[in-house]
């Protein structure tokens, strides 16, 4: 614990400089604490799939299985844990790039209806397998958006995948409307919902409502953290509403046209 705070004795310029130094010192300390917490989380998250991989590889090596079916189950676990590990590494890399401000946006004309249809298509099979109704309510004659279409797709896909994953029965609905500030996308499900005490933290890295449940889904706990970062980059805002046992609703509002900042590569 490094306390580098300066005593403030006056209200003049030296006093305000001292205050600025103190604020900076508190911020730096918070950063240190967050960083070491994050590193602890990352190493824990990496160790878990690795211990599964090692454990089941040993089981197979030592022939500790009764029959072919059991062998298949263990091999499947090895396969899905490897996939999770790869996803985790890829997502961590993506998050750190975003946080360093190192992602480039490719702004283009985006037809909202086409984009939403293609995203829904991607989760259709999974939804059908679970017996869910997937529906779209897209307002007519929406204007063309000027934004990064691929990033927008990534955000919506993430929310839709979560909606399908965390819904056992009922419906997943995506609504798109023109609003005062731009375009509003809402992903609404009739799923498991999120307890109120977890709601403020769902966008935090590695925050999961129920660890065992999330693990079964193959989740990494980074999906919504990535969504939140991407939404920020696309100059939007996101809010979540949810009731345990009833369902969840993620609403995002994006400006119709993204402000063209220096780091944004405008292809038009
Ligand atoms: P994960 O990779 O574990 O899904 P996310 O960051 O995408 O991680 O989500 C964080 C947690 O928020 C999840 O573990 C899940 O418990 C909860 N969650 C996210 N979306 C939904 C949803 N639509 N319904 C219920 N719970 C959700």
TrEMBL record:
Which ranges carry the HAMP domain? 1-33
Histidine kinase domain spans which residues? Answer: 41-258
Name the reaction it catalyses.
ATP + protein L-histidine = ADP + protein N-phospho-L-histidine
UniProt keyword annotations, A-Z: ATP-binding, Cell membrane, Coiled coil, Kinase, Membrane, Nucleotide-binding, Phosphoprotein, Transferase, Transmembrane, Transmembrane helix, Two-component regulatory system
> In which compartments does the protein localize?
Cell membrane
Q: Name one GO molecular function term.
A: kinase activity
> What topology does it adopt in the membrane?
Multi-pass membrane protein
Coarsely, its chief localization is membrane
Keyword hit for Transmembrane: yes
Question: From the record, what ranges are coiled-coil?
Answer: 71-98
EC number(s) reported in the record: 2.7.13.3
> Could you identify this protein by its name?
histidine kinase
Q: Which organism is it from?
A: Lysinibacillus zambalensis
Q: Which residues of the full protein are shown?
A: 205 to 472 of 472
């Amino acid at each position: 614990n490094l306390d580098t705070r300066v005593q403030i004795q006056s209200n003049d310029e030296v006093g305000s400089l001292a205050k600025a130094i103190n604020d900076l010192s508190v911020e730096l300390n918070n950063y240190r604490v967050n960083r070491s917490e994050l590193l602890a989380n990352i190493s824990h998250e990496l160790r878990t799939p690795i211990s599964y991989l090692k454990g089941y590889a040993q089981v197979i090596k030592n022939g500790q299985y009764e029959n072919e079916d059991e062998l298949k189950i263990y091999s499947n676990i090895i396969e899905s844990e490897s996939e999770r590990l790869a996803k985790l590494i890829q997502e961590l890399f993506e998050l750190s790039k975003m946080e360093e401000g190192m992602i480039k946006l490719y702004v283009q004309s985006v037809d909202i209806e086409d984009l939403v249809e293609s995203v829904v298509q991607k989760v259709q099979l999974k939804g059908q397998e679970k017996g869910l109704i997937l529906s779209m309510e897209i307002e007519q004659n929406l204007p063309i958006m000027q934004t990064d279409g691929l990033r927008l797709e990534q955000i919506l896909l993430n929310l839709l995948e979560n909606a399908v994953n965390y819904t056992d029965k009922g419906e997943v609905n995506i609504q798109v409307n023109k609003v005062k500030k731009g375009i509003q996308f809402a992903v609404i499900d009739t799923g498991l919902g999120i307890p109120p005490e977890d709601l403020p933290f769902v966008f935090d890295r590695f925050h999961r409502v129920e660890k065992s449940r999330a693990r079964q889904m193959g989740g990494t706990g980074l999906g919504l953290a990535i969504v939140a970062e991407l939404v920020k980059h696309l100059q939007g805002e996101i809010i979540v509403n949810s009731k345990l046992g009833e369902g969840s609703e993620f609403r995002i509002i994006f400006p119709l046209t993204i402000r063209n900042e220096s780091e944004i590569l405008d292809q038009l």
